[in-house]
Amino acid sequence: xxxxxERLLLGYRTFTSGKANVQQSLYKDxxxxxxxxxxxxxxxxxxxxxxxxxxxxxxxxxxxxxxVANIVPGVDSLGSSYGTLAAIEYAVTVLKVExxxxxxxxxxxxxxxxxxxxxxxxxxxxxxxxxxxxxxHERLLKLNIPKEKLQLEMELEGVRQSLKNLMTxxxxxxxxxxxxxxxxxxxxxxxxxxxxxxxxxxxxxSF
Length: 207
Ligand SMILES: [Zn+2]
Description:
Number of helices: 11
Strand order of the largest sheet: 2-1-3-4-5-6
Low-confidence stretches: none
Structural class: alpha/beta
Shape: globular
Order of helices and strands: HHHEHEHEHHHHHHEEE
Strand content: 15-25%
CATH superfamily of the largest domain: Carbonic anhydrase
CATH class of the largest domain: Alpha Beta
Number of strands: 6
Mean pLDDT: 95
CATH architecture of the largest domain: 3-Layer(aba) Sandwich
Radius of gyration: 18 Å
Helix content: 40-55%
Distance between the termini: 43 Å
CATH topology of the largest domain: Beta-carbonic Anhydrase, Chain A
Bound molecules: zinc ion
């Protein structure tokens, strides 16, 4: 058995003597006054996509939720996906974040699984989860997108769909319409570390 405990403790000690030591007062403030993040980020569980790194943030800045393929289910496909929805409800109604950011990413395994048909015939939980995006996949297939572009197009379309699904929840729709909340779609390229941001027409531009 590999010594994961040693590896984790080594990282932990580096953290406590470094960043955590420098940010002592920030950590104390966050426990005395509580968290007041203005940003919620929904991103993939993928180990290569870390919102705190990408946006260079501190503890207390981002309320994060990670799941396979950064999917927000719609109100009609709830199933047993309450974990994602509980995080969104808490962020919007209790923390009153000002923006919910959905990050899609390059080489997403969940999206690839959906393209490969896992969402149609899997008895496992990953297949059941990504089947939420079967409709997105079917929509793209009708557009005859070249095979080599399908992965990226589906990653982008998945972000668009998650933003649409967010608006199917009354508490999100009300917060957006009252000006309390903005929704932002983004995509992160791991190979080039490029962030693309979606405009209100659904087009992505690199920054
Ligand atoms: Zn992913």
